[in-house]
Hints:
Blueprint: H1 37-40, H2 60-86, H3 90-116, H4 122-141, H5 148-174, H6 190-206, H7 212-233, H8 239-257, H9 266-306, H10 316-344, H11 348-373, H12 390-398
Amino acid sequence: MGAEDPGSKRYGISNMFSSARSIKSKSTVFTLGNRDELINNQLEWPVIIPAHCSEKKFPYEAIFRSVQYCLIENVCGEYNFVVQFFRVKAERAQDIFTDVMGRTLILIHKSLETYMENCYDCIGIMICAHIVMHYHALMKRRNLGALVGFHNKLLQVLWPRFNYVLSLSIHSVRETDPSKLSELDTRPHFITRRFGEFYSAIHTLNDNFPNEQTSRSMLLLQSEVENVILRMAAEFQDRQDQLVFLINNYDLMLSVMLCRTSEPNKEVLGVQELLNRRINEFVDEILSPYFGGMISFVKDTEKKLENGGAGIPLNETYITQLVRGFASDYKKSIDSIYSHVMKCFTNFKNGTVILQSALTKMIQYYSRFQKILSQPPFKSLPCRADMVNIHHVMVEVKKYKNQF
């Protein structure tokens, strides 16, 4: 997951799969797409006949499904023939069936073992495992236990390989060194997109046959991805750039994770909390250059008023500067904030939320500022006459409501 696609020069990360068979595009092994149609709607489709499909390419799991479906259809016929022709049941029927089909089952098992030795497609492996489990359930519904041992052997090949490849992804992300990344910018990183798509795929598949070990491994992978995002953000010198990078990555991760999730789970809610926390911090950062003086005054004065108002300094000159500065510059400041947010965030919808959050917070601080100046000892200050009516500020803010 932490390795770049072959041929890509944007990121200087060594390929953790360099000793494995080349994969033309690693993006496909992290994306589910419509691959789950095999287990949702195509389990009992006709088998694939190579002579009729010579021009078409199929993913391994499609070939695997075809072989397994062909096998169970033939097994049902052979087993019933053995029982009826030899007039045997139970163990004796199984022994004769094994003599007839044993070599075929060994060949299929060996073929799977050979392929899995060089397979690094977690999603494909999981789909194959679920195909086996679905067909095992189908055989059970048909009251035939002839393939119970065979199916268990296939799963003993598939699940260990799945866990191993998933552990490689975890290790790959953990070992990613941000200092070796080239052209790192504030846009979402490819690791973030890969994880979001991979999480969505595994979560969707795991709902069919819940597996606790898979859930634990995915939690660990998510933790490593969140850690590497923080490490990459630390490569930026400016705090605002760090926050923009974090927000863009958390937002993308959340959007992709929610694509196939009907209801937010604890993993999704965790990312949402991280995103909200960074948005709040960014809002404070972006307001500070334009309204920092007023915000600091409001916070400090409110604390003193809560304690009875004793010792509040009446710095008329400074307060007058705050009032007149806001009146003369608030329109230009709002426009500057809007322009900055437009440039920072790749998701316009998220940018709209951040912009509205910043402008709403600015109005709240200005309202609190007005409330403070309406109380002693500020009530008699002449500069209060220069204060902009808050409704005028709200009208100005509304101009930017639908511009994203």
